[in-house]
Amino acid sequence: MKHFTRRVPFRALLVFGLRVLSTTPVLLQVQSDSSVTLSQGTESALVVWHDDCSSTEGWIVNTTFVENLVSQVQPEVSLLTDGDGLYSDTIPGLSVSTHGVQFFKRLDTPMTVSDDLNIKAEIQHIGTSGMYGTLGVILFDQFNNTVFKMGSTDSWASSECTAWVAYKEGENQTTQYNTLSDGWNGTVRMWYDRYNDSVKGYANGRIFTLASSGKFDSSREVHMVCIVFYAPQNYPYESDYVRDILVTSRTEVSKDTFRDAWHHDCSNTSAFARNESWPMPWLQGSNEWSITAGDLRSNGSVLSFGGIPSASGWHGPVFVHELEYPIALENLRNFTVKLAVDNTQAGDVGKVFVCLADSEGFAILKAYVGDAWSGSSKGHIFAEYEDVDLNAAQHGLIDVDDFTSFDGRMMFAYNLTTGLSCEVTGYGLTRLSKPTISELDREITHIVVMSARSSTITYMPCTIDDIYLEWQYGQSTDNPEDLGIGYLVLVSTGLASIGVIIVIIVVLVRKR
């Protein structure tokens, strides 16, 4: 926080140069002696309901589960606390698929989803090997129907578990998972995004869109907060802990403070349109290929390419998704692509790309897997950042010998301190580049998927399993050369004796 106090003389014009460190509001306080105090403000949020989970008081057992949350209710199971979180007593094993207990509290004031509904829960997953269980935090409407629900589940004998978020309306439910391992402490959260008219969810590190504009009823009312604990069949049960539950309504929200995400699970091709004239200045010279016919297909779980005809050189189809609005490179937080290729046939060749590109067709980040050697099982795995001069900073995984297949993730991330990095399944984490200040303004406008075949050689099967993009608006920075410049202009009205003053602020900030 930055503070200064300046006594303003009568009939004075003062100009102060300020460095703007963040996008949060600026608060000006004019004192009776005409002095002015400048401080950094904060966003406001109305707390609708809060439980710090230090006590079981007020939680009521619900003996009638709605919407088949569990197959059998066990109301004898107690709700316990360690003074810092709520958990359940041991749940005795039963032969039914799921069984357990639910507790609820009612909101003092019901609210609708469109009231900028936001619920956040802090969860601790113990993660003991060989133990099972699910913890859910659920919002119900006045008819005891689920609206928002989120939590953690351990259904594996190994250390694998999931944090999950779900939106349910009628018989339709959208659930998204973040697969984790071992014990963890983290956050699950759901909220209504008024700017995109959508329901968003956060599962301990990943953001999802659970319901898009026009696909849900934002007037639904929330009346009740519930906690559910359940176990699968006769498996040994271990309770997770809920450490805090907070329900808020944001009274004033700046879009600049939000994280957002775009996710495509590759269950269909509707997000991408064929583009037969997409400029590709980064695929020239020895890398040049031509755009030809070819199909983008989905079997309900992965994207694949087919129908690529024989032609000279490298060639194939291009499909493009245009983002709703541009994303500055500095605001990128996560770009993850899951790719798979089958290179078991030594004579096959092929390439598959997923790129983030600007409006001129220049690739910014490229995830690429391919085989350009007919008659051998060598292959390429490239994770690249390409600057404005088409210089590529590669992950260095080139000419991999005995490359018979790849089925993994390429996860790009940007950090203010370390720059760009990429983690590739089986090959670890490598720093790609630290973009210059001017390059941080580059705008990502499109997601491009494409695949190529060489001449008449048999095409190597390539699939795209998942694409995830996450970004943050208004990232503040610690780089001095990256700070905006502002001016505070104070103009006296001639009424300084009673402390009346006109304050004019002119703020010049670098475009985000």
The shape, in one word, is: elongated
Mean pLDDT across residues: 77
Give the second-level CATH assignment, the architecture of the largest domain.
Answer: Sandwich
User: What number of domains?
Assistant: 3
CATH topology of the largest domain: Jelly Rolls
* Residues in helix, %: under 10%
Question: How large is the count of helical segments?
Answer: 0
- Give the amount of beta strand, in percent: over 45%
Quaternary form: single chain
What's the β-strand tally?
Answer: 39
Computed over alpha carbons, the radius of gyration is: 27 Å
CATH C-level label of the largest domain? Mainly Beta
Low-confidence stretches: 1-43, 251-257, 394-399, 474-512
Distance between the termini: 21 Å
The secondary structure category is mainly beta
Main β-sheet: number of strands, strand sense, barrel status? 9 strands, mixed
